[in-house]
Design brief:
mainly beta; 4-stranded antiparallel beta sheet; two-stranded antiparallel ribbon
Length: about 70
């Protein structure tokens, strides 16, 4: 059970991409570093978590966004 999370950066940015469970607990931090401008794809290997609803939070400098994903095994 893997999924790809893709995003684009307009400029060189400090990026943090975190997966949360529905209770708001951190499940995994996928990215926490500086990245160049352009398109990026991060693969999340969810084999160690149970099926359910997860949120992923991406923060790149002043931009922040939260999206929902459903994991079915």
């Amino acid at each position: 059970p893997t999924t790809n999370i893709s995003y684009s950066l307009p400029t060189h940015s400090n990026v943090k991409l975190t997966i949360y469970n529905i209770a708001g607990q951190i499940v995994e931090i996928l990215v926490d570093n500086e990245q160049t401008a352009g398109n990026h794809i991060i693969q999340w290997n969810a084999s160690n978590v149970v099926s359910g609803i997860y949120l992923y939070h991406i923060q790149a400098d002043d931009f922040t966004q939260v999206k929902k994903c459903i994991l079915l095994k």
